[in-house]
Amino acid sequence: MPKDSEGSLDERLTRIERELERQKTGLGLLGVKPCSRCDIYQRSGPGTLFNCGELVCFKCIQQWWLDRCPTLDPNDRPRIESELCRWLLNHHQAELIPRLADLPSPEQLRIKLVVGCESCNSAGKTHSGRKCTQCDGRGTLWVVVRAPGFELPSKNK
What we know:
Blueprint: H1 3-29, E1 32-34, E2 41-43, E3 49-51, E4 55-57, H2 61-68, H3 77-91, E5 95-97, E6 109-116, E7 140-146
Antiparallel strand pairs: 1-2, 3-4, 5-7, 6-7
């Protein structure tokens, strides 16, 4: 191939890359950002993308947490875990489940994560030495989001 063809191909690729960057910048200015896991652009909003240094959409959150959790610094994990738990509770109708017997069946669940209990700092006991009532003495809780059709009835109805 003649060198002119290669030059024009390189120029076209450079132009395309610049245009894509401009579009990404424009989307960002409009409040649309990509999930760091699936790269699908989402409109930014309080419950759309979980942000802890990287943006993760609700659809990807469970697998992201399972992959990310073991790599976290032990000092950062409780804070990020707490933020994730609050994000799910506030924006995705998550529930805290203290006992295994209270867990819904797997087909009823969209998300199931184990998190440390904030009430007892994952110790399972209160400051007075009694069993923590929030986590039933285990030091952990399940955070679950039910699948569509298996949600708990709204208290407002």
